[in-house]
Amino acid sequence: MKLLPRLQVEGSAEWLARAATQCLIDEARLSPKPGLVDSRGNGAHHDLTLALMERSAHSLTPTFQALAQQSWQRPADIALRQTIGRLGREGEQQMMAATNGVNTHRGAIWALGLLVSAVAMLGGDAHAQQVADTAAGLARLPDDAAPKVFSKGLRATHRYQVPGAREEAQQAFPHIMHYALPQLRQSRLNGSSETHARLDALMAIMTSLTDTCVLSRAGMDGLEAMQHGARAVLSAGGSAHPAGQQALAMLDRQMLALNASPGGAADLLAATLFLDRIESPYLTH
Ligand SMILES: CC(C)(COP(=O)(O)OP(=O)(O)OC[C@H]1O[C@@H](n2cnc3c(N)ncnc32)[C@H](O)[C@@H]1O)[C@@H](O)C(=O)NCCC(=O)NCCS
Ligand SMILES: Nc1ncnc2c1ncn2[C@@H]1O[C@H](COP(=O)(O)OP(=O)(O)OP(=O)(O)O)[C@@H](O)[C@H]1O
Fold it and tell me: Has residue 1 got a pLDDT over 80?
């Protein structure tokens, strides 16, 4: 692999960090998303707003940049895993400081952080599948310095015996690679607007993700409502189609009634937009 001069590495790290932040902002603004914060309002969240999500996204740029710098052309080993674990946890603290203690982006720091690191490990130029595989290699390494803390996500994975954020990464992000990215591109090819293509990609994730945000807030009934509702949108022709729009509005009402919010699916949509950008960095959708 070609060794890049320091300045070029810094420039690439900055580009990756800005791209990751922009994907978080694009995800947050995308509307109408069922149960989630979007340009219309707060969805099922009492403690989140779009302004808070955007402030949080900006607070994470230095974290993404440090992750890219530290990971540049390095192999997946315990030393790198420890470094990115530390940077990820520091990023969570930055986020919490920017939001006065509200969890806006924990799952997104995990998924996007690993993907930013993986692109940098590969020298800044790679296909989405290689990036996902490389990120999975990192996620499978033990992080011995991680504090043993209680988390809602972990409790939901144990209680319902389902994979969560950790496993999604360790399995090389199947919901991005097998559902969201293909749907995003198919909907674009079908002539859908960028907004509709992104909403369809979100629906594709929601058809099968075991989203621990939804499980924690609304149990298995909430998760089933999310998966069935998302399938109904896609089988009605997607969000660009009038019948799909009706199905999406119904899913939104259901999610609000159940106090359910597919935050994990939202994180994976942001990560999907990032991998899409990596493969076509000069296109502005
Ligand atoms: C793995 C993480 C997300 C912790 O996950 P945990 O399952 O313990 O639960 P927690 O409730 O804190 O967060 C889960 C979040 O993931 C998202 N999520 C939920 N379900 C899913 C799913 N099935 N797939 C993907 N994401 C999901 C949601 O946004 C949710 O808020 C992460 O915070 C972590 O361990 N960070 C340590 C720092 C680190 O190693 N970073 C390295 C990369 S930067
Ligand atoms: N647009 C969005 N709207 C809402 N949540 C989002 C959005 N995008 C991403 N998320 C994710 O959803 C998670 C927030 O979910 P949730 O509010 O259930 O977490 P919590 O603070 O741990 O729980 P609770 O609010 O039930 O106390 C964040 O970690 C974030 O990663």
Answer: no
